[in-house]
């Protein structure tokens, strides 16, 4: 193609783009002075006129523009009928190339004359498309085939058209910044040239046919088996492809389909299932499902025939899993999983908009609708877009012009462009066939099967089930063998164990997967929800304030610190009563949180409710576990005594001094979703728990039966983004085991900060290397707009406070987090602190006391519902943390503790000892008294 032709072709494309753009812009202005009754006609005439202009130019230019026209012709769900009606002609009925050109190409490519190759060759093509045309023929051996012959000179045309398309997209992005299609055209520029090599298409055809079992006669009952046909490849060269002939009817031949009695609904659903299988199961899919690439077999039962595998996309296993996760997250409204899937696939946002992201995802996977509802769909999309722009405008504090030029997407991975195209083409196909397809129902089994298949590959089938860090001790070697046993017995889904002995790390193991639908491996820096383990951290914060002399003492009346609290008979409650679970407020908030669990997400409302609650017993007389109220009681005291936010004190007291940034939170910030483990329940243990008797030391609203019910319902609640981001100091800490173990290692040494954590994985982040509050990428300001300061203010969610890097006194860190040499006595409520606790109670001041088998007080810690635990043995300078995402009631943790304590020759805490005494060597043995707190 000469430069004159290239220039002429380019000018025609740009001229039409400008004409159509200006026509619609002027129409928007004319509409303001047009009667409502005539507006519809005005738009219809404009659509008809512009669709004809577009069709005529596409037919004239051919090449890549035919591909664009074919794509647009399938979008009956969003485009006006005029475009669909006219552009449908491009699906298979372009003007054919001369037969002489076809013969020359065949002779040159196959190296033989037509007479030697074929007994017969139809001169009239079956179809002519953008790149090639297809003729029916009979091989010399009598085999009926179709011959796909590439147009002469089409390669140069396609490559030039790609350049022109890129220029137009750049221009559109400049004129209308909210319509930036650069990621899409970039991916198309990468993938489209592959369609010009028919050897690649031949191999793609074989792979997809094999993946879908098209040549298999297996009668195995597989719910994910699809019933489609794909022609067999006979031979191929770069520009000629010979395929098996299959007799079929085109999808747009409605009369023939009706005469054959084809059920269009089942037909389209089976095509959709075939693509769901290709995407989610195989990770290798046809990227061009427009109607011209399908036939319906004439022979009963009229299966779909899939054609043209030139544009075929392969997905890495990790991307395939991320796409499946994104689909299921959208179907279930799981914001955490959705944001995590984005991070996994490399889709980065510039700010935190979880609700809007979920809405857009739901629109993307929405049900298809008939073509006659396209106008209604466009109106709904426009309204939704305006709504999202308003949210963006308010969040960014931008004017209308500025918000149009703000792109909330920072990075859009090219690998998902073709996936997006396929979903849109399938929806358009359904609309053009006038059927409704519920994509969630059809695609869900395929997406689930991918994730469940990988999750179910326990240690027996997964050599990487244990994270690949070298063992730090013989004890860790034996622990890993135990974890493999538990994993094979389906008692462990994901787990972390970290332990310190004499100030050194001796265990740092991560194993399993992050969730039931999240087959990514658990890493050392993965964040687990640990329920009541949170209380040990919250209690430590309160002790830290006392130790710092921040106008707080253990025998202070809470009402003197927190004035609103000293009402309704609570004027005698002191700080030590709260820590010792003897305040009498053990059932506080129980009824409210049962009626509306999401009230827990409202920090201020919960503090108000606690302040207005009346105690059930006199302070200091009865110890009953404050399973939920404990956190808000401590939290209210912490904030009122320090005049700082709860999370500020957490960072100042522990996170920064211990160098565990990014791995210990109570209320997560935006940006850490991809590291979160997802909770699930061990239903076998829940069933056994429901058969156990109640326990007198627990409050009436938290008896065993209540715990059993909670354990089956709480995972769904605490997996939500709302709960994870909320400040619930009694129940929603998120941490890694190595961060939690480091905290307890400091406590066991009376506040002395341990040496830097051993870094045993060169491929994974060191403890403390994550930013504690992740930043979103900021938008580069335009020449007219310098808003870097304002943009940086919005990257953090408004309910998560950024904390300065020092403690307010110029000290970046300290070697000790506690100065009190008797801090152990304070934690356990002994010696000079014994008058502040109930003498025979199981709790000290905020921590659960731990006794040896012989009744000796040996340490303290706190377990959480589900089995996660933080614990330290004071006498033996031992600290350990266990985090789990498959909620059990202590059996897994007890086995871990038993092995580690036995190897180190230190006493096993009685709680775990009693547990293991009733557990035989059989993994599936009965429960003992569960570790509820």
Distance between the termini: 77 Å
Question: What is the percent of helical residues?
Answer: 40-55%
Strand order, sheet with most strands:
16-15-14-24-23-22-21
What Rg do the Cα atoms give? 33 Å
Description:
With 933 residues, the protein is α+β, with helices and mostly antiparallel strands. 44% of the residues lie in helices and 12% in strands. The protein has a 7-stranded antiparallel sheet, with helices on both faces. Helix 12 packs across helix 18 and helix 19 packs antiparallel against helix 33. The longest helix is centred in the first third of the chain and has 29 residues.
Sum this structure up briefly.
This protein has 933 residues and is of the alpha+beta class.
Structural key phrases:
disordered C terminus, alpha+beta, elongated, six-stranded antiparallel sheet, seven-stranded antiparallel sheet
Give the SSE layout.
Layout (H helix, E strand, L loop, with lengths): L2 H29 L4 H26 L2 H10 L7 H7 L11 H12 L3 H4 E4 L5 E2 L3 E8 L4 E7 L3 H22 L6 H10 L6 H14 L21 E4 L3 E5 L3 E3 L3 H7 L3 H19 L1 E3 L7 E4 L6 E3 L5 E3 L2 H16 L2 H11 L2 E2 L4 H11 L9 H23 L3 H5 L4 E3 L5 H16 L6 H17 L18 H15 L5 E8 L2 E12 L2 E4 L6 E2 L3 H16 L9 H4 L13 H5 L10 H6 L7 H9 L17 H14 L3 H10 L8 E3 L13 E2 L1 H7 L14 H15 L2 H5 L7 E3 L1 H12 L39 H7 L28 H6 L19 E4 L5 E7 L5 E5 L4 E7 L1 E2 L3 H14 L5 H8 L16
Parallel strand pairs: 19-25
Antiparallel strand pairs: 1-3, 2-3, 3-4, 4-6, 5-6, 7-9, 8-11, 9-10, 12-13, 14-15, 14-24, 15-16, 17-20, 18-20, 21-22, 22-23, 23-24
Helix pairs in contact: 1-2, 1-7, 2-4, 3-4, 7-8, 11-17, 11-18, 12-13, 12-18, 19-33, 20-25, 20-26, 24-25, 27-28, 33-34
């Amino acid at each position: 193609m000469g430069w004159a032709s290239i220039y002429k072709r380019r000018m025609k494309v740009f001229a039409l783009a400008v004409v159509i753009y200006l026509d619609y812009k002027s129409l928007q202005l004319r509409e303001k002075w047009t009667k409502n009754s005539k507006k519809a006609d005005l738009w219809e005439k404009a659509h008809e006129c512009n669709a004809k202009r577009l069709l005529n130019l596409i037919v004239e230019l051919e090449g890549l523009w035919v591909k664009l026209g074919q794509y647009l012709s399938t979008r009956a769900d969003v485009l006006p009928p005029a475009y669909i009606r006219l552009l449908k002609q491009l699906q298979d009925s372009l003007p054919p190339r001369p037969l002489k050109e076809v013969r020359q190409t065949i002779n040159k490519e196959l190296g033989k004359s037509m007479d030697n190759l074929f007994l017969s060759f139809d001169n009239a093509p079956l179809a002519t498309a953008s790149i090639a045309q297809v003729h029916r023929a009979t091989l010399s051996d009598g085999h009926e085939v179709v011959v796909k012959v590439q147009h002469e000179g089409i390669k140069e045309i396609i490559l030039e058209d790609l350049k022109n398309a890129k220029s137009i997209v750049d221009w559109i992005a400049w004129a209308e910044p909210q319509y930036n299609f650069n990621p899409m055209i970039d991916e198309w520029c990468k993938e489209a040239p592959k369609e010009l090599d028919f050897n690649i298409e031949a191999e793609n055809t074989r792979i997809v046919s094999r993946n879908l079992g098209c040549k298999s006669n297996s009668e195995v009952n597989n719910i994910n088996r699809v019933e489609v046909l794909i022609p067999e490849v006979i031979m191929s060269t770069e520009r000629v492809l010979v395929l098996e002939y299959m007799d079929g009817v085109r999808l747009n031949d409605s009369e023939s389909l009706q005469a054959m009695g084809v059920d269009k609904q089942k037909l389209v659903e089976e095509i959709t299932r075939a693509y769901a299988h290709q995407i989610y199961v195989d990770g290798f899919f046809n990227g061009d499902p427009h109607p011209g690439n399908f036939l319906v077999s004439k022979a009963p039962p009229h299966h779909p025939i899939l054609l043209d595998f030139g544009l075929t996309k392969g997905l890495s296993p990790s991307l395939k899993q991320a796409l499946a996760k994104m689909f299921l997250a959208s179907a279930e409204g799981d914001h955490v999983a959705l944001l995590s899937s984005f991070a996994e696939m490399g889709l980065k946002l510039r700010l935190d908009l979880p609700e809007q992201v979920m809405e857009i995802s739901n629109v993307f996977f929405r049900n298809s609708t008939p073509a006659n509802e396209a106008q209604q769909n466009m109106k709904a999309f426009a309204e939704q877009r305006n709504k999202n722009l308003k949210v963006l405008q308010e969040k960014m504090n931008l004017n209308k012009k500025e918000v149009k030029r703000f792109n909330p997407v920072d990075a859009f991975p090219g690998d998902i462009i073709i996936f997006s195209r396929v979903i849109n083409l399938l929806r358009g196909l359904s609309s053009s066939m006038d059927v409704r397809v519920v994509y969630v129902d059809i695609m869900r089994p395929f997406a689930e099967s991918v994730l469940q298949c990988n999750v179910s590959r326990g240690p027996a089938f997964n050599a990487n089930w244990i994270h690949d860090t070298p063992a730090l001790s013989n004890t860790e070697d034996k622990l890993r063998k135990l974890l493999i046993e538990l994993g094979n017995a389906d008692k462990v889904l994901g787990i972390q164990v970290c332990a310190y002995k004499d100030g050194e790390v001796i265990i740092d193991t991560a194993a399993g997967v992050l969730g039931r639908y999240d087959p990514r491996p658990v890493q050392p820096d993965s964040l687990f929800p640990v329920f009541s383990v949170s209380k040990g951290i919250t209690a430590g914060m309160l002790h830290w304030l006392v130790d710092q002399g921040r106008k707080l003492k253990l025998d202070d009346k809470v009402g003197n610190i927190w004035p609103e609290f000293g009402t309704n008979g609570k004027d005698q409650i002191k700080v030590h009563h709260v820590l010792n679970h003897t305040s009498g407020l053990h059932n506080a908030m129980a009824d409210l949180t049962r009626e509306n669990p999401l009230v827990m997400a409202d920090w201020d409302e919960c503090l108000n409710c606690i302040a207005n609650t009346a105690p059930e017993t006199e302070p200091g007389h009865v110890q009953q576990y404050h399973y939920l109220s404990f956190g808000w009681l401590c939290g209210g005291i912490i904030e009122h005594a320090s005049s700082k936010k709860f999370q500020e004190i957490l960072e100042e007291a522990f996170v920064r001094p211990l160098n565990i940034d990014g791995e210990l939170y109570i209320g997560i910030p935006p940006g850490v979703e991809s590291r979160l483990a997802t909770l699930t329940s061990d239903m076998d243990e829940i069933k056994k728990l429901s058969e156990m008797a109640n326990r007198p030391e627990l409050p009436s609203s938290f008896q065993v039966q209540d715990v059993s019910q909670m354990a089956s319902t709480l995972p769904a609640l605490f997996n939500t983004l709302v709960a994870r981001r909320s400040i619930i100091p009694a129940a929603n800490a998120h941490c890694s085991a190595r961060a939690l173990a480091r905290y307890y290692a400091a406590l066991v040494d009376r506040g002395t900060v341990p040496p830097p954590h051993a870094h045993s994985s060169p491929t994974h982040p060191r403890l403390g290397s994550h930013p504690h509050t992740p930043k979103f990428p900021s938008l580069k300001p335009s020449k007219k707009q310098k808003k870097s300061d304002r943009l940086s203010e919005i990257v953090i969610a408004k309910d998560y406070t950024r904390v300065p890097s020092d403690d307010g006194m110029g000290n970046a860190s300290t070697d000790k987090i506690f100065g009190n040499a008797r801090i152990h006595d304070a934690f356990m409520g002994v010696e000079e602190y014994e008058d502040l606790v109930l003498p025979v109670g199981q709790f000290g001041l905020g921590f659960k006391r731990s006794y040896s088998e012989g009744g000796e007080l040996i340490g303290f810690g706190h377990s959480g519902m589900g089995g996660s635990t933080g614990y330290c043995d004071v006498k033996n300078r031992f600290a350990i943390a266990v985090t789990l995402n498959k909620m059990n009631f202590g059996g897994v943790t007890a086995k871990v503790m038993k092995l580690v304590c036995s190897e180190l020759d230190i006493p096993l805490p009685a709680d775990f000892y009693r547990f293991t005494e009733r557990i035989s060597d059989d993994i599936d043995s009965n429960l003992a008294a569960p570790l509820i707190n």
